[in-house]
Fold each of these.
Amino acid sequence: MDLSKVSISLVVASCDVIRGEVVATTLYPNNFIGELPMFDFHTYYIKEESCLLNVDMENLLPSYPKHVKLSVGLHPWNVSETWQETVASIRKVASRDDVWAIGECGLDKVHGEPHPLQMEVQMAAFRAQIAIAEEVQKPMVIHCVRAFDELLMLRRELEASCKREDREPQPWVIHGFRGKPEQAKQMMTKGFFLSFGHHCNIETLRWVFTSSRPFYLETDDLHLSVRQIYEQAAHHLGVDVSRLVHLCDPRKTLFSHQNP
Ligand SMILES: [Zn+2]
């Protein structure tokens, strides 16, 4: 990439459409030789590996490099009085081809010690995003801290309404899952998928691995390569990384209908 072209593209407003691609092509030229096989299920930063990049509406660019797919949502920490406006703008971009999931969104009973009224607002914002995911038929990336009963209740609600309409609800993936094996079992039997990061419970990871259900790996907000997370998981499971690359690739499961 010619550096003069890069600087021109970055300063000229009409080049907004390709800004993301120019930055990434410059930073990661190797991506464009071929897609790297590992998939980072949840990250806040564009890196070399294929990923589901979590973006909020303020930081959403018109386009991204091909190996970056997006999840757009309103995080429960950021739910404010203006949440309805934010959710309306999420609705507007939810059908974009590079938006593969809605989220991260969900419920958090710990961060900022929310009082019951704030929890009600979190719940309303989450419900509105569930409706978007159903409308555009895309999976959800869920943030859940000490609100698993509420999460299960919302899932039951969704399943009941889908049943009435004779259709399947979209899959929900709980990201950064740190619960014990019993909780993983409970959530998975209710149809949830789990994604694990650096701080996961190793016993839970082992249990999920033996369950032969798909699971995912992520860097979340860490400035790590997802390769490190794959290697850490492979070490704990006593398997080869290549086995996890196959097993933990959401392009083969959740996103199999999307164009890569
Ligand atoms: Zn989260």
Note: Residues 104, 143, 175-176 surround zinc ion (CB under 6 Å).
Amino acid sequence: MTSLDLYGAAFRTDPYAELARLRDLSWHAQTAIGTAVLRHAEVQQLLQLRELRTPGADFLALQGITDGLLVDTMRGFLLNTDGDDHARVRRLVSGAFTTRRVEAFRPVVAGIAAELVSALAATDRCDFVRDFAQPFALRVLHTFVGIPLSADVQQWTSDVGLLFGMDVVANGDRITTAIAHLDAFLDDLLAQRRAVPRDDLLSALVTDGRLTDVELRSMVVTLMSAGQGTVQHQLGNAMATFLANPEQWRLLGDRPDLAARTAEEVVRYCPSALLGVPRIAKSDVTINGLLFRAGSCVLPVTGAANRDPLTFPAAATFDITRSGAPHLTYGGGIHFCLGAALARVELQESLPRLAAALRAPRPDGPAEWLPPTEAVYGPTRLPIAYSTD
Ligand code: HEM
């Protein structure tokens, strides 16, 4: 069997080149964590299989943490639940997180994008991550959910996010403290929204009344961690890709009607969810003739499947006029991204505005990137220079 060294230089330096090399050899490759699935047909199939589940607290168990607050917190996140527990909470949240609510929110997203773009247009260089992608994703998410923006809340959310890493033992005290602070903060906020509901997601969930306070707190933390870094890094990846494809940037600047196609093409071509969310076999299961024993781990490698030449014509070409591309960046099956409609609106409202205002953007110093093994992949620093005439 071919193997993918997730921690080796080839994958770290150019993950797409390494994934393309392996995908040409076979639809699957062995990694230290489990089997990476690399082609579109098989990734699509595995995302639908009910014999597979998301990892829950399995990665904590691998680090020797098998019970207590951290395990309970981890198991409470929607993405980590399965079966009836998942179906019930997902149904209730979907009832509030509707396309209608997202569409009604579109002008707010457009306003936040316009404000940040005009600040960029007042100068001729910026760090695209610090000055646009990060504040845009953060402000949109907090406004949509109804969480006041504060440095404390950001810090606590980011500390709780450490639960998804592989240094949980070392970070245990920090995570525990953050959970306690967030619980107190959210209890207070829930009481306020119950007393005086507003036009936001949290008020809709509180007013509905069918989620318990524990479920509500867990849902808010889920949304804050699932809806911020993903969008921020998706925007960073998009800008890095446009820097390498300047004719596509010019085209978008001239053709804002390509907004919807662009929003799909950037998530296909350079997904922030590069590796996808791993799955664990609940029972023995076969994919394309290969047996996965109960307990084995399977990685739906979105970044490879989205450029599979068996599915996409000219798969390695970034083309914002492409239509009907069935990329897998938002996952599939019961865990299909709950925030996909909001993410689409964010990309549709921001990228054409940026392309119209910032002419001929070019790198303006070295970029810095997260390692591609993180839950999300993208630049943490992306200095660019541009003209605005
Ligand atoms: C470009 C941005 C985004 C990307 C690439 C992304 C990607 C994903 C992926 C890969 C999954 C897992 C799907 C699976 O494995 O089948 C997921 C689930 C989820 N996402 Fe997103 N996401 C994005 C934006 C958002 C936003 C803006 C929100 C909320 C405001 C959000 C909330 C969620 C939630 C709650 C889940 C768990 C759903 C469940 O388990 O039922 N995401 N997302």
Note: The first helix runs from residue 9 to 13.
Amino acid sequence: MSSNPKNYRMCVVCRKMHPKQDLYRICRDESNTPFVDYLFKVEGRGAYVCKNAECIATLGNKKKVSKSLGGTLPQELIDQMIKETGTI
Ligand SMILES: [Zn+2]
């Protein structure tokens, strides 16, 4: 418990700890629109997800997950993230 480096965060889908750079951080802007916080600089609540298509795809259809995200994500955003994982 005490050995987790402080840059590790938990994926909301698989609940595993990963270094921040291996995760996407999803935030919401003032109008509650979800977006990806690529630089981890946005203040406020954020949810982390692994940069792999499996975890990202699950974001769109898990009730529990959308709860921690404050709502469901638009398919567009999910597709965008999956696309980007393919180019890493
Ligand atoms: Zn994951």
Note: Helices lie at 53-59, 63-68, 75-85.
Amino acid sequence: MTRQLSRADRLIHQFDTVLRTLVPHAAQPERPSPAGSIADEPMTEAEREHAEGLMRINHTGEVCAQALYQGQGLTAKLPDTREQMEQAAQEEIDHLAWCDARLQELHGHTSVLNPMFYAASFGLGAVAGAVGDRVSLGFVAATEEQVGRHLDAHLRELPVADRRSRAVLEKMREDEAHHERWALEAGGTRFPTPVKLGMRLVSKVMTNSVYRF
Ligand SMILES: [Fe+2]
Ligand SMILES: [Fe+2]
């Protein structure tokens, strides 16, 4: 009976996370947005549009992170590191909510492609988790490395006036570096360069499509 209940509980929790990830403005952060009371400088329409596109990419990246952690949570054993993984997943919810809020401020919308990227990332996470914990953690580390590279590029590309987005991305950058370190220290495999290059190619497709849609 207990076992059935806990399985039902897990299913409800999973479904709840899917909804909170995919329904705009549904994610509730545990930490306040780093944008806080920072004031923006005036932006031109072209600058606002560019900032919107970049923040939409970052939002979708967090949708993928959420799906990845969820997919792995389903199949990975992670006897010693599950708690840390759940902590990281919670921090990704903060990122998701902060990006969502910033997109709203920029009068932008989240990507219509999010459900597709969610499903793909969930599947990849579940496969990695099923292969083994070292691969699963290695996948987290490689993904976080990739996300870090994106964030660095976006921090360079953001309009100087967009100080609120910058504050959000800087805090995210710090958290993602911490996730990457944790996944490697927990025993994650370092992925070979060709695999990382493949991941970079996939993320290029994602960023190009999500910037506009
Ligand atoms: Fe994140
Ligand atoms: Fe992360």
Note: Helices lie at 2-22, 45-75, 82-105, 114-131, 133-157, 163-185, 193-210.
